[in-house]
Design brief:
Chain B has 220 residues and is mainly alpha-helical. Chain B is built from eight helices and no strands. Chain B is 75% helix and 0% strand. Classes of the chains: A alpha/beta (277), B mainly alpha (220), C mainly alpha (211).
Chain lengths: 277, 220, 211
């Protein structure tokens, strides 16, 4: 059996081992490369910078715990960004598995850093079922869809919500999503109520949302861990995404090498000819 | 009549009400009806999620009751469901361990078990995608070669080390990729798909409202 | 770091490694973790829906005087008729309500928010200005959108002009899917990095407090 035949039949677990090592090694031997900023991340950052101080914004935790590595750095950095501008932050989630809990933990942790008080500077509305109805219903009245916050306190007893009725009082929405909910924020909220919107999304979804940036429906876009790292750099809060990008390089190079190797063996073993005949 | 006419009528009336309300202000009669229907939908939508949980519980319970293969694991699933659900249902006013707030059993189980396990489950996909890329990602045709080349260059571009490598070549390759690949060809295709899918969703919605599409009702 | 915090980190590490063990081969430890995960996720839904829907959205407003909410309450309960084959048709009305309202919102939002806006952006890109680069980009976008739509148009056979345009469409689609694949690799690897980051920093970091 030739080398290429052996390479073709290699046990998948050797590939897994290589991937595992490619992720672990950079943690042991860290290598730093500069992270360039793409225009889409810059546009999002600039749009938030241009918001008036102390305005009301929404940060939407529309991601599952499965994509926490990509999405949480985005929500964290956004909270830093908004609270530096002294914005009032409303958080909510359309994800029934983990969304409201993650919103609760992340906002409270960062709020402590800025001395923000729950109910005065930020509110976690939590979750309500059926996001189409939720997004559409909040256009008329947030309180009718969310009679209470995530902890069960009636919105009428929360001082920050006194002056907030619907989207008219919201200056900006930052949607962080790992699924199609971002489409509905665009088609229902942005299109019908005209609220400016930015999006942070997983790398898997990012290519789709370039269409919304191109149409101006999103003011900017963070795509995956790279987008999160760019945003961390722009806000000046280097976190897990920047560290993660240092690790990412080696795995990508490994996968590219595997693709090249696989294709060489495909041609060397003459499988392309067999296919043609 | 009860089996088909009533459901079709309900879909028609509720659908028409919501569709028409798009053209009315919130403080009108139509606006207020549509808002009520949306609130109702958040309630009925919640029950649909519970339906799934009841189904899982039933399936696992049957397996445990009949001592089917792997029933011990199914029992573990049942115990986990109740361990998570019961403390969450009990009022937080009884004990800080109940309810859903930070400090509760529910929040702890989510933070230290459920959330990291879900993240790990999806992390394993990195291994599979690497293996799949090695075994199946072949330049078999002109089209697959275009796909392969684009994927490889984009993979390089999205990581710092790869971008540094691309910058060794003349011309600004990263800028070209962002402008003409992501915001050019990719944007165009995604836009085409979005338009096509949205037209499909709108026409399917119309079919549901008019009672032409009834497959969601199931058999029987 | 307190003993309890160390315990928490070790709990996470145990289940993380148990799930990763499947990469070598299926084993009882993986199965235990997998079934606990499935159960906890289902239990999470119950806690959330009980609190956010049944109590705060249905029960509290209802006893507060909004008796009309009994209608969605009944519709919700009727859903469970699906578990009884003889009476499963009863749940159709609830499903019809969900489908009807969602469809009513969808028709307008999909056409107004997606179709019109995306078509408008495509046409506006031809508006000119920005020099040769911008003009080239506009042409790429317009040709790409039209050829993609034609590629997915199956009501007429892809021959002649339609066939050529569909062929151009498939090239565009391959470029986009290639970019998608590149991004997907990045996404999946990011998730793995997240877990390894935890193991390398938090779990191994806790060793110094124990050993």
């Amino acid at each position: 059996m030739s080398f290429w035949e052996k390479a073709e039949q290699i046990d998948r677990r050797w590939v897994y081992l290589m991937v595992g090592l490619a992720v672990i090694v950079p943690f042991i031997v860290p290598a730093e490369f500069p992270i360039s900023i793409t225009p889409e991340s810059r546009m999002l950052y600039d749009a938030i910078e241009e918001l008036p101080d102390s305005c009301t914004v929404m940060v939407v935790f529309d991601y599952y715990p499965s994509t926490i590595a990509e999405c949480e750095p985005m929500t964290r950095t956004a909270l830093h960004h908004f609270w530096r501008k002294d914005c009032k932050v409303i958080t909510l989630s359309n994800i029934p598995l983990g969304g409201p809990s993650m919103a609760e933990s992340v906002t409270r942790e960062i709020a402590r850093e800025y001395g923000k008080v729950y109910g005065e500077d930020f509110v976690n509305l939590g979750y309500k079922a059926n996001y189409v109805a939720v997004l559409s219903g909040m256009g008329t009245s947030i309180e009718s869809i969310f009679p209470t916050d995530n902890s069960g306190t009636p919105l009428s007893e929360i001082p920050m919500m006194d002056s907030i009725v619907n989207y008219e009082q919201v200056s900006f929405i930052f949607e962080v999503a790992d699924n199609a909910t971002a489409d509905y924020w665009v088609s229902i909220v942005n299109a019908q109520y005209g609220v400016p919107m930015g999006c942070g999304t997983t790398a898997v979804s990012a290519p789709k949302y370039y269409a919304f940036v191109g149409s101006g429906q999103f003011v900017g876009l963070l795509g995956g861990m790279k987008g999160a790292a760019e945003y961390e750099m722009l806000v000046g809060k280097k976190g897990k995404a920047v560290i993660g990008m240092g690790v990412q390089s080696l795995v990508h190079l490994l996968i590219i090498a595997l693709v090249i190797l696989g294709n060489i063996s495909y041609f060397v073993l003459g499988k392309h000819k067999r296919r043609l005949s | 009549m009860l089996k088909t006419t009533v459901p079709v009528g309900v879909a028609f009336l509720s659908g028409i009400a919501l569709m028409v309300s798009f053209f009315f202000r919130e403080n009108t009669f139509v606006g207020s009806i549509s808002q009520d229907l949306k609130i109702w939908l958040t309630i009925v939508g919640g029950f649909t999620l519970l339906l799934g949980v009841v189904s899982i519980t039933r399936v696992n319970w049957q397996a445990v009751k009949n001592r089917k293969e792997g029933w011990g694991y199914k029992l573990l699933t049942l115990v986990s469901i109740f361990a998570m659900a019961i403390p969450a249902i009990l009022p937080a006013s009884w004990s800080p361990l109940f309810g859903r707030n930070p400090g509760s059993i529910y929040h702890w189980l989510f933070t230290y078990l459920d959330s990291p396990m879900m993240a790990t489950m999806f992390a394993t996909l990195a291994f599979y995608i690497a293996s799949a890329a090695y075994r199946a990602f072949r330049a078999r045709t002109a089209e697959s070669t275009i796909l392969l080349l684009t994927a490889t260059v984009v993979m390089l571009w999205r990581v710092p080390m790869g971008e540094a490598f691309l910058n060794l070549f003349p011309g600004n390759i990263p800028e070209f990729l962002n402008t003409y690949v992501m915001n050019g060809a990719n944007l165009a295709v995604q836009r085409g798909i979005i338009i096509g899918a949205a037209l499909g969703a709108a026409s399917m919605s119309l079919r549901i409202i008019l009672g032409i599409e009834r497959t969601y009702m199931g058999k029987g | 770091m307190s003993g309890w915090e160390i315990f928490e980190i070790w709990v996470i590490a145990f289940f993380t490694l148990a799930l990763f063990s499947f990469m070598y081969k299926d084993n009882p430890l993986y199965k235990v973790a997998e079934h606990i995960f499935a159960g906890l996720s289902a239990g999470y839904y119950v806690g959330l829906i009980w609190d956010t829907v049944i109590i705060t959205q249905l029960w509290d407003p209802m006893i507060g005087g909004d008796w009309l909410l009994i209608v969605p309450g009944i519709l919700g309960f009727l859903m469970f008729a699906r578990f009884f084959p003889k009476y499963s048709w009863v749940s159709r009305t609830s499903l019809a309500f969900v489908m009807g309202v969602t469809s009513g919102i969808f028709i307008t939002s999909q056409l107004h928010g997606l179709v019109l806006k995306q078509m408008q952006a495509t046409m506006q890109s031809l508006g000119g200005g920005g020099g040769f680069g911008a003009a080239l980009l506009s042409i790429i976008v317009v040709v790409g959108v039209i050829s993609t739509l034609i590629y997915f148009y199956f009501s007429k056979e892809h021959t002649g002009v339609l066939g050529v345009t569909a062929k151009v469409g498939i090239w565009f689609i391959m470029i986009s899917f290639g970019a998608h694949f590149g991004y997907t690799v990045m996404g999946r690897v990011s998730l793995l990095i997240g877990r390894v980051q935890f193991l390398a920093e938090d779990w191994i970091g806790s060793f110094k407090y124990i050993f």
